[in-house]
Amino acid sequence: MTLKYKGKTKDVYALEDNKVLLKFKDDVTGTDGVFDPGANTVGLSIEGVGKSGLRMTQFFFELLEKKGIKTHYISADLEDVSMVVKEAENFGKGLEVICRYRAVGSFLRRYGAYVEEGAPLDALLEITLKDDERGDPTISKDTLVMLKILSEDEYEVLKRQTIEICTIIKEELNKKGLELYDIKLEFGRDKSTDEIILIDEISGGNMRVYKDGNYISPLDLEKEFLN
Question: Which CATH class is domain 2-88?
Fold first, then answer.
């Protein structure tokens, strides 16, 4: 294996036949030691959170596959805390698609003059650029198209797939008495087929989930959800 790059929460290794291996870490994003799935820096390390994230990711990717949704997932190795996936090309230098069901986090900080904390949102989508230097700025559909990061058709595919995927995730969490407040997804183009596919991970590290009005940490979420 050849190390391609070291990420905040995963290291990426090149394999043969347009495949890569993702090695999960125990780091999560946040600021000043407080977890924040929308942050662009590593905020803290939580022992076991890498394997926890992989377990949830494996569960959700295999569920999505059964429902006919295309992802980059191939296989997972819980002992090695790694996942083999199809290699995908980013849109631009990388996009994050956030689906919001409640007004919390950076959304509340930006729009708190217009909305109360925890107010319901109807699967509200926001797209941000992966750009640490500029603080992962939000970007509109018109700007994405103007800068040729996405076409109008690709934007609509991303929007449709995000809502479909997040609805499935939200319903699965609801079965365990858990409420999804927001979640961050990533998409790319399959390097072999050029299809738009879901990439990265689906875990407590990229979502906010509450139970009876109380926030559930990423590690506790995996225990609550899978056990």
Answer: alpha beta
Topology alike, domains 2-88 and 91-221: no
| d(C-alpha 40, C-alpha 37), whole Å | 8
pLDDT tens across 70-82, in order?
A: 999 999 999 999 9
- Of 36, 51, 7, 81, the C-alpha closest to 217 is 36
Question: Residue 103 to residues 19, 37, 115, 121: CA-CA distances in angstroms?
Answer: 37, 14, 7, 7
The counts of H helices and E strands in the chain are 5, 15
DSSP letters, 53-64, are HHHHHHHHHHHH
Q: What's the predicted TM-score (pTM) here?
A: 0.92
- Tens of pLDDT along 101-119? 999 999 999 999 999 999 9
CB atoms within 10 A of CB 35: 19
Q: Which fold has domain 91-221?
A: D-amino Acid Aminotransferase; Chain A, domain 1 (3.30.470)
Cα 66 to its chain centre, rounded Å, is 19
Q: How far apart are CA 129 and CA 154, in angstroms?
A: 16
Where are the domains positioned within the chain? Answer: 2-88, 91-221
Condensed to tens digits (0 to 9), the pLDDT of residues 143-190 reads: 999 999 999 999 999 999 999 999 999 999 999 999 999 999 999 999
Q: Where are the alpha helices (DSSP H) in the chain?
A: 49-66, 105-111, 141-146, 152-174, 218-226
Kindly report the backbone phi and psi dihedral angles of residue 222, in degrees, each rounded to the nearest multiple of 5, phi listed first: -60, -40
